[in-house]
Here is the input.
Amino acid sequence: MSASAYPTAAILAAISANLIFISCSGDSGPQPGTPAFFWSAARQTFASGDYVKTVDHLDKIVASENEFTARARPWLLVLTSGMARGYGEIADRFEAGARANKADPAAFRRNMNTYRGQASRLALRFTDVFGNFQKSKDDTVPLAFSYPTGSANPPLILTKVASGISPTPVDVETAQKQNIERAVLLSACAAAGAPDDPAKTQEILKQPDAKVPRAVFVTAMASALYDQSQLYSRQKLDDPEKMKILCTRAQEALKGIPESKQTKELTGKIEKTLKASKS
Here is the structure.
């Protein structure tokens, strides 16, 4: 190619790139920065198992009332409650490992504190989103997300960690990914009214317009609130005020739905925790 041909080639390449950009961000797809754009992005990142980015995309949607908000909030609740649970479980395993490994407990405690902090941030975000969700009074709740990735089986690496075996950085990263996926899957099962039943949940989420009765969804979320409140017990983060907030939110949510055996048992646990926190 001659020297004079390079500028022409560069111009043609630039024109081609601009045409591609226009076709991708024009009428054929949602405009970047719009709720539709973030909804599409959330579906893609969720399918790939990148739940951190999915939460970020959904957060941008629920920041305003739009055509996707009613579908995004339940999805965001499933994700944040599941991820909080996942990080909390990892922290508990490292705590057990610190007790088992008498020779070098410090590294286990550092990981315990890191994961417990991450669980707390997600638990508080979950609580905030649930407060906004409760402003709606629809009889059914949409489950507008696909079946989560991962397995319902606990990662074997975390069993080793709990026994005091020091994991490699790669092991820690793998265990984190697997346990977060597991916890989100179990959160989705509970939200769908099929606790600990991935097969049934998968069938429910296959439906083009999957929905569950509000009472089923709220019961699952109230249970998650109570579970996350235990992060703030004296044995863990020792923050009775936050524990009280989460328990009270769960208690108030249960008052707004029909009583069942499950809600009665959960109400009893909440009342016991609140009573103990005062002593």
Notes: Confidence is low (pLDDT under 50) at residues 1-26. The radius of gyration is 23 Å.
